[in-house]
Design a protein that fits this description.
59 residues
């Protein structure tokens, strides 16, 4: 499992993930938990959706 998420992509994923989680708390909706997915992929630097298409935003 090699890293396929670059630094700008990681930052954007973290921002989006935190935004979705924040929205979930604000709206008191469990769908905010979906924000954990981009937050997790930003933390580990690997996106499973990129793998079949051989996409890499890293160097």
């Amino acid at each position: 499992m090699s890293k396929n998420v670059g630094s700008i992509d990681r930052i954007l994923r973290a921002i989006v993930g935190l935004g979705v989680i924040g929205w979930g708390f604000y709206a008191q909706n469990w769908l905010g938990a979906i924000g954990l997915i981009p937050l997790f992929t930003a933390a580990i630097g690997w996106c499973p959706a990129y793998t079949p298409f051989k996409i890499s935003t890293g160097k």
